[in-house]
Amino acid sequence: MEDPDGTVSSVAQCIEQLRRSSTTAQEKENSLKQLLDLIETRDNSFGAVGSHSQAVPALVVLLRSGSLGVKMLAASVLGSLCKEEELRIKVLLGGCIPPLLALLKSSSVEGRTEAAKTIYAVSQGGAKDHVGSKIFSTEGVVPVLWDQLKNFPRNENMVDSLLTGALKNLSKTTEGFWSETIKSGGVDILIKLVASGQTSTLANVCYLLGCLIMEDTSVCSQVLAAESTKQLLKLLGPGNDAPIRADAAGALKSLSAQCKEARHVIVNSNGIPSLINATIAPSKEFMQGESAQALQENAMCALANISGGLSSVIVSLGESLESCSSPAQIADTLGALASALMIYDLNADSMRASDPFVIEKILVKQFKPKFPFLVQERAIEALASLYGNSILSKKLTNSDAKRLLVGLITMTTNEAQDELVKSLLILCNKECTLWHALLGREGVQLLISLLGLSSEQQQECAVALLCLLSNENDESKWAITAAGGIPPLVQILETGSSKAKEDSATIIGNLCNHSEDIRACVESADAVPALLWLLKNGSDNGKEIASKTLNHLIHKSDTGTISQLSALLTSDQPESKVYVLDALKSLLSVASLNDILREGSAANDAIETMIKILSSSREETQAKSASTLAALFHCRKDLRETHVAVRTLWSVIKLLNVESEKVLMEASCCLAALFLSIKQNKEVAAVGRDAFAPLILLANSSVLEVAEQATRALANLLLDHEVSVQAIPEEIILPATRVLQHGTMDGKTHAAAAVARLLHGHSVDQALADSVNRAGTVLALTALLESASIESAATSEVLDALVMLSRSKGSAEHIKPPWAILAEHLHTIIPLVSCIADGTSLLQDKSIEILSRLCHDQHAALGAVVLETSGCVPSIAKRVIGSNNFKVKIGGGALLICAAKERSQKLMDALNEPNLCTHLIHSLVGMLHSTNSSIHQRDGQGNMDISISRHSKGKLRNGEAECSTAIISSNMVAVWLLSVFAAHDNRSKATLMEAGAVEIITDKISQYTFPSIQVT
Question: Which residues form the signal peptide (predicted)?
């Protein structure tokens, strides 16, 4: 051990001197005095004594067998060593307790005093002193101490004080303390000590008495019999020291909690006013510290015990305000109310809940011009307690704003204080926002003026209020800027407290996000360095705020900032990297592609570092890096088409084999982003195919979140036609359907896309149809369609998948076509019809094609839904008129026939838009012209998959099929629909004539001996 000032050698010499048997008693005393002086004057002496293996044993030997003077000095040295916890344990384990107890029992007053001092010092281990607890219990320390108090309570005040202090310490740790106390007559001793009024012992005695009452309720009767209650009430008064008052209140709290009779005694002894005065004493007498808080809390709890709960006290105090005869009495009552509100907790709330609205209303009424300032001051204190109470404040509106306003009111003076009080009263009396309560821009100017030369606490309150304002009100953002708020906010960001910095950063982020002009102002104020400091050194919350604010602030690439962030990314602060990555993403999102690709540039170094830390040993860093790269590639199509995407892809694919679910999810998400440009980047396509197999495994993960992200990546990988063609359908259909059924909206959207893109590479054969049917894919798709908004990506992807499934031509007898599921579940028709009514033309065409497959079996239900859905009939008519897709024209016509079969008049009414009916007739005639060719053959090929059943099937006669018009087939849709118009009115007939319908129909009839029909 280093020994620059000779302390170690001096300590060693003293101990060696003490250990020598030849040393005289006087020499030992001198050595002990020298050692005591070293311990008390040199800090490094504790280490020197602690490092000497024989120090404590030697001192304990002297304590046991030395002369009285040596024993006293040895005890004093041992007591001084106990100032350090490690040495206190050594002293305890060194066997000091028996000789200390022997010295305590000696006839020497000085000896007893030194022994009491050391026993007090060695007992200060606290509740976690398990070693001391065993030793004190084993050595029977508690009975001895009570016995000494019984024998020497009269004229050794210092000894009594130390012994009661030691007993207080031991009561928190020693096994069997309370049972030993009762056996040793501790109750009577405590009662006598309370009565004696011995100032040095009263605090400890009241504490012990309070704890003893809580341990054994039978003690109450002895306390009451001795009339100790009155003495305890007297001790609450201002003539006593704060610790005595606090512990006397604690004893009354215990007594009133455990004994009904005691509650009556306290009331009859005029104890209520004494307890109320005790609760307001800290405020009135400017008391501070733990004792002041304990006095307030203990006295209020005693009042609560007497009154039937804290809520009852609060109600009683609130009601008594109306009957107070003087301002001073009002102020005292408000002070007591503040104390009650301060300690109101879940226990009080569960017994009888207080109504914070009523309390607030009562307190606000105390702000009257005629009342002196003291009343307003106490009302503010009570409101501070109300808004600071987490249980009560959460039920109030704008409680955070009110709490901050109250805080500012207590820290301001004169005009500023008056304005803040007005704002508080407006906020309490009216249902309005903080912006209106502060009178808009005037209040903002006041708050900004408080940001300057003010205390740290006042600055925190002012900036926190501005933060609330900027979060809830857009007008405030321009008001803050116009009032010159940006420079002081940046200054606080640089030099304020941690909380003020975080709130200032939040405000700056809100300002930047609101307006480009304001953002430019913040940028010119040079806020970036301070935000970078917060990003590096702030709390987790501060780092997150700084990252978000940088995201809002930085709209152009800055080489210096990127370099600083890259440096942070490679630093030894792994917890910062999560937030640094977010900030770097913001910068790289606006960096030029040339900068990112140019080797050696700050932007290139940054993205290379981001790719590099994908292989970090820290899972959180890996996941965040993958997530950040995903966001970057998602927003930058140009970057996805470069070699950087390929390098990233190689690194991310390696993560698909790790065990961390979080990493697997983010890696899959990153792959999904990279695959968005798989058609444009052939290298990504080539490398990406290696990810197919592991993604299939992840898509079947038992963890839905992992499966969802893997399905998302697969959906985009299937944009590569080669992957889509080579994929085994069932490997995609089953996991995608699971995500469709149980995933998030984004996951379901990508699952629908995966199904649609798979089907683009496959015809719907029997095997694929069987997979779709077994998985329940069609119903899962329609359920998504039901829950998605018409303009969402999910709607488009679902329709794309369903239209591909609807094009299946047929199947084996035991495997029905997937689209047939829709006919069995009629509720699935409704969202498809809604897409026709409200969707874009592309969505309408897909929906018409899907629904037209159902016309054969469900024409009645389909027609009813089409007619009942507002705007559907006109939308179908417009697509029949405007579409170039013959299948859409035929399908739309079929849907209109279904509607006409239900109620033809309602169909005609729905087509009453100007010229719509005329244009539709002309379009149908045009369809007849185009079908007057070899497209429609009598064998039913072409569009014969669209048909409408008119009535029951024809019967067989003499073994031959009866010719009938039971089925309206696709090549007859236009004719049938024209017949509906012809039967409606003369105007429609005239339009038919003008359009040449008669001629084309006559021509068609002349070509056939019988209409082309489908016989079933």
Answer: none
> What span, in angstroms and rounded, lies between the C-alpha atoms of 758 and 159?
91
Strand partners, 969: 947
Of 29, 81, 74, nearest to 50 by C-alpha is: 81
Contact 730, 773 (CB under 8 A): no
Torsion of CA 879, 882, 886, 890, to 10 degrees: 40
Q: Out of 258-262, 770-774, 985-989, which region has the weakest mean confidence (pLDDT)?
A: 985-989
Longest Cα separation, the chain: 146
Residue 21 and residue 10 in one domain: yes
Residues 328 and 287 in one domain: no
Total domains, the chain: 3
Give the tokens for residue 170. 């031991």
First vs last Cα of the chain: how many Å apart? 108
| Residue 195 resides in a domain | yes
- Clarify whether residues 14 and 157 are in a common domain: yes
In 869-934, which residue ranges form alpha helices assigned H by DSSP? 872-882, 886-910, 916-931
130 and 226 housed in the same domain: no
Collapsed DSSP state (helix, strand, coil) of residue 567: helix
- Which pLDDT tens digit goes with each residue over 90-112? 888 989 999 999 999 888 889 99
Say if 343 falls within a structural domain: yes
C-beta of residue 831 within 8 angstroms of C-beta of residue 786: yes
* Mean pLDDT on 862-869: 92
Distances (CA, A) of 311 to 296, 348, 353, 394: 16, 7, 6, 17
- Could you give the CA distance from residue 237 to residue 247 in angstroms, rounded to a whole number? 12
Segment 810-814 long-range contacts (CB within 8 Å, at least 24 positions apart):
811/766, 811/769, 812/766
pLDDT tens track for 209-250: 999 999 999 889 998 988 899 999 999 988 889 999 999 999
Complete DSSP assignment for 953-1007: PPPEETTEEPP---EEEGGGHHHHHHHHHHTT-HHHHHHHHHTTHHHHHHHHHHH
CA dihedral 870, 875, 876, 879 (to 10 degrees): -170
Distance CA 790, CA 835 (A): 7
Contact 510, 466 (CB under 8 A): no
Q: Among 396, 418, 445, where does a domain finish?
A: 396
CATH number of the CATH domain containing 162: 1.25.10.10
Q: Which structural domain range is residue 372 located in?
A: 308-396
Q: How confident is the model at residue 46 (pLDDT cuts 50, 70, 90)?
A: confident
| Phi–psi pair at 960, nearest 5 degrees | -115, 150
Q: Are residues 160 and 121 in the same domain?
A: yes
Provide CB contacts within 8 A for 512, sequence distance 6+: 518, 519, 522, 549, 552, 553
